[in-house]
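Dock guanosine-5'-monophosphate; give full complex structure.
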Amino acid sequence: MYTLITAEQIALRIKELGATISETYQGRPLTVVGVLSGSVIFVADLMRSIGIPHRLGFVTASSYRGATTTGGEVTVGTGLLPDITNRDVLLVDDIFDTGRTISRLLKELDHARPASLRTAVLLWKDGCSQVDLVPDYHGFCIPNQFVVGYGLDYDDDYRHLPMIGVLEPQDLK
Ligand code: 5GP
Ligand code: MG
């Protein structure tokens, strides 16, 4: 595996994102909603860089796909979602690839009638989108490579790594 984005680069960028988000939502009833499980590390760090009061919730999303391939129907779970009616919601995920997960989740969250609904992702695989939508905030644009670490997994491993890495052929099962 080799490192694509170091822990230091991630930390710096999250400080910037937090400052921008704090400014945007100053005086607003903000709820940050993380997408389990990939966003947990990003959400935890992003929250601590947001300098205004806000609440936290989670949703789940899974799609039928191979370990490193994309496709299929996205299934959404809202059992861990607090009441977001009339609140400003920032949906946070690890990566925007085809955009189908975020797109599906936005539709679901919209049913709860939030005051506003925006998206933040750490990584954006620019050029891979299959939906008419772009993330409102993103940490880094990356090439179309399969990445792990900082919450992102390969076959449920590698989530604990502090950096974003790219797996090499000998790392793949
Ligand atoms: P999308 O629906 O945008 O195609 O994919 C979003 C989800 O696919 C992410 O939340 C993540 O779980 C998974 N995903 C997409 N690209 C990658 C990648 O490069 N590495 C890992 N580990 N997961 C990815
Ligand atoms: Mg995910």
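Observed: The chain has a mean pLDDT of 95.
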